[in-house]
Amino acid sequence: MNTITDTNFNFPGQKSLYKGKVREVYNINNEQLVMVATDRLSAFDVVMPKGIPYKGQILNQIATKMMKATEDVVPNWLIATPDPNVAVGHLCTPFKVEMVIRGYMSGHAAREYKAGKRILCGVTLPEGMKENDKFPNPIITPATKADMGDHDEDISREDILKKGIVSEADYRVLEDYTRKLFQRGSEIAASRGLILVDTKYEFGKTQDGHIVLIDEIHTPDSSRYFYADGYQERQNRGEAQKQLSKEFVRQWLIANNFQGLEGQTVPDMSDAYIQSVSERYIELYENITGEAFVKGDVTDIQNRIKTNVEAYLNN
Predict the structure, then answer these.
(1) Coil, strand, or helix at residue 228?
(2) What letter does residue 119 receive in the DSSP assignment?
(3) Cα 275 to Cα 278: distance, rounded to the nearest angstrom
(4) Longest CA span, the chain
(5) What mean pLDDT comes out for the span 135-162?
């Protein structure tokens, strides 16, 4: 299967190129950003050696739909989507924190809780919780934004303000926007028979000083979903939840002795396993959006993206 795992375009007006774990961002005339969602798969802050067919298209299209479904509660950076793998938006200066919000004791929070920790990012966790239990109220557990190859780190609100990473006035807006987006995201998920368990949001400041949502939103890479049907019964029986997220990849890696720790090597992903991950992402797309996934033409993805973006920019 053809995948796109690296790009090096030279678009009209291009000033710079930034490569993240999954997305590549082209600065156009210091006014717009062209963001290409690649098929790279990142887990435990490590980029896997093989791409996942259609993953970039899936992430880009879910994020686009979710931005349009939330733009009435929180402004965002998006201007256009000239290609299935591409979003174009306003140039913003990103805040150097990811706003992680959790409605349930899952994933990283559950792993920390099992290790005996009762304070996460400055937030006190209730005693007596089981993995995947619902928190009394959603909690915000921020993380510092790492470059490719580095690990995101938990950080508290107090440390963010003390270190001057974000001003207090701006941070209050980030918290308010995070809660509003999570509320809307939870409502959208519920309408699809899903539970939005936890997610992360990234924000930036436009050139005229407005704080807006940037990057992805409510995708299976940035969010964890459970199926609502049978959730409570599974909790009562102490069973694992049926979920829609990238967690299935993390669990496969853990089972194959990889958690991104020093000295560990990424297990080999067979073509059959890669195909199964691609199919799982398509299932995620269809469940999260409620729409059938339409595969883009992958005969020559590089040329397709180049042609579509240049046509948009020249227009």
Answers:
(1) coil
(2) E
(3) 5
(4) 59
(5) 88
- Residue 244 confidence (pLDDT) above 80: no
DSSP letters, 178-210, are HHHHHHHHHHHHHHTTEEEEEEEEEEEEETTS-
Q: Render pLDDT for 76-114 as a digit per residue (tens, 0 to 9).
A: 999 999 999 999 999 999 999 999 999 999 989 999 999
Helices 55-70 & 168-191, crossing angle to 10 degrees?
110
In this prediction, residue 146 has a pLDDT band, given cuts at 50, 70 and 90, of: low
Query: Which residue shows structure tokens 């299976």?
Result: 220
Contact 1, 56 (CB under 8 A): no
Return the sign of the alpha-carbon dihedral for residues 65, 70, 227, 230.
negative
Q: For residues 224 and 217, give the distance between their C-alpha atoms in angstroms, rounded to a whole number.
A: 11
Task: Report DSSP letters for 1-29, one per residue.
Answer: -----------TTEEEEEE-SSEEEEEET
Amino acid at 174: L
**The dihedral formed by the CA atoms of 129, 135, 141 and 146, expressed in degrees to the nearest 10:** 80
Q: Which residue has the tokens 């090597």?
A: 265
- Which strand (E) or helix (H) includes residue 302? helix 301-314
Q: What's the burial of 49, exposed, middle or buried (CB within 10 Å: 0-12/13-18/19+)?
A: exposed
Q: Where are the alpha helices (DSSP H) in 71-167?
A: 107-114, 157-162
Contact criterion met (CB below 8 Å) for 281 and 220: yes
DSSP reduced 3-state for 162: helix
